[in-house]
């Protein structure tokens, strides 16, 4: 198979040609500052308003003014949580989950060090939340609840409507990290008990470095970025005009193809799982029993190390990911899979395949052709490694391998 198989679309997606084309005039001809009074600037302001309406339509917001453009999903998550804490200074408690993206996880760990109390809700072996645990965690002191819509590593989708109803019944603001959901599942935030929703454009075929935060009308929100009057005083800083236009265009295209894409990509993902589970004994799908994103598959290969798989997959032109955080040279097991209590012999060998609108059946079959041989090779190295360890009484500096093995 010629070329590259890019199955790492939860990390980022390719920018659509139509999106790049829509952006270009705003990097060349229409370079006015949208805050300027003159026509050259204000015409750009009108285009930003159009993009805001396109993004509002994608997430099903009642009014485009509820959409604030940000620099990323990470900024949206930070702005939402910090914005709620600042607006409610008397409250010192946050509720989130153990399986959040680092944008929420890292922030909440930081806030914990600063003296906030954080409840980290756990998940079961399938990746599901216990709603009774959530109910019990909420208190008079809770300033905000922040829970992701779909998990970036496993694709597991949380029941946001049920969660939101529990949170709203207590009058607590509810933030949802929908970075992996926008463009993949239909969203109607206006009809749901959610108050703040974060999305990021590079997950749906627009550039990196642009995102949006939905803030429901009536929610008291303190801005994270302070300075000028942009975004109705809710996010200071001259707008990233071309990227905003690109995000709007990508949102419009995604909305138009949502059902069709989800169906087609879901079928390919299911085919990939069926083929791989058959051709690789000792493999399993993490989170399989749950409602999942149609494009995401997290597969564990028993006794292997995901990082080693990635290196060998890459040699065959296949881009995937472990979805786990890595520290220099040593693979840390995924915090998501650990929270799901994935047994030790399956934990390190997780590989995330995330498909896109551009994925094909030919690619799926190619991956299935390559993976069994890679698994066998790693098992062989692993067996040799074990034998070597037994035979060697002292470390042999000449025998190191570039491929990490977990025996
Ligand atoms: N939240 C989730 C669930 C994500 O998957 C990501 C990115 O992978 C982010 C937040 C951060 O988004 P960004 O890369 O735009 O900062």
How far the N terminus sits from the C terminus, by CA atoms, comes to 32 Å
**Helical proportion?**
40-55%
Instruction: Identify the overall geometry.
Output: globular
Low-confidence parts, pLDDT < 50 over ≥5 residues?
325-329, 388-407
**What is the CA-atom radius of gyration, in angstroms?**
23 Å
Query: What's the number of helices?
Result: 12
User: Whole-number average pLDDT?
Assistant: 92
In spatial order, strands of the major sheet run 2-8-7-6-5-3-4
Largest sheet: 7 strands, mixed
Helix and strand string, N-terminal first?
EHHEHEHEHEHEEEHHEEHEEEHHEH
Query: Cofactors and ligands present?
Result: pyridoxal-5'-phosphate
Structural class of the helices, strands and pairings?
A: alpha/beta
What percent strand? 5-15%
Number of strands: 14
Quick structural summary:
The chain is of the alpha/beta class and 407 residues long.
Q: Could you explain the architecture of this structure?
A:
The chain has 407 residues and is an alpha/beta fold. A 7-stranded mixed beta sheet has the order 2-8-7-6-5-3-4, with helices on both faces. Helix content is 41%, strand content 14%. Residues 325-329 and 388-407 have low confidence and may be disordered. The structure holds pyridoxal-5'-phosphate.
